[in-house]
Amino acid sequence: VQLQASGGGLVQAGGSPRLSCAASGRTFSRYNMGWFRQAPGKEREFVAAISWTSTNTYYADSVKGRFIISRDNAKTTVYLQINSLKPEDTAVYYCAASSRYGSSDPSAYDYWGQGTLVTVSS
Fold this sequence. Notes:
Strands 2, 4, 5, 6, 9, 10 and 11 form a 7-stranded mixed sheet that branches. Strand 7 (67-72) and strand 8 form a beta hairpin. It contains no helices and 11 strands. By secondary structure, the protein is mainly β. The N and C termini lie far apart (36 Å).
């Protein structure tokens, strides 16, 4: 599976960007998907995950209630809707695919996109 993230950019605080991650390969629908982010000078951290059927979603406490993960298997795309953007959300956002659902451990993910940078202006 090859992943291509997009949708980042310079966004004002309070904004609501939507990140997309397009996947290639016929097996996309079999993978559980996740979003991670890495802020400057910090380690990569888990943001959200969604099961391959979209039945289950899982969020980091820091984004719960503001971020929404979703997927469209027909379009082989996973999304991350970010609401009420805050300066501390500034980071490179990565999508990743895993055969296991619900893991917040980056090592559980088999495939990674190249990342898309979200910069929040105050």
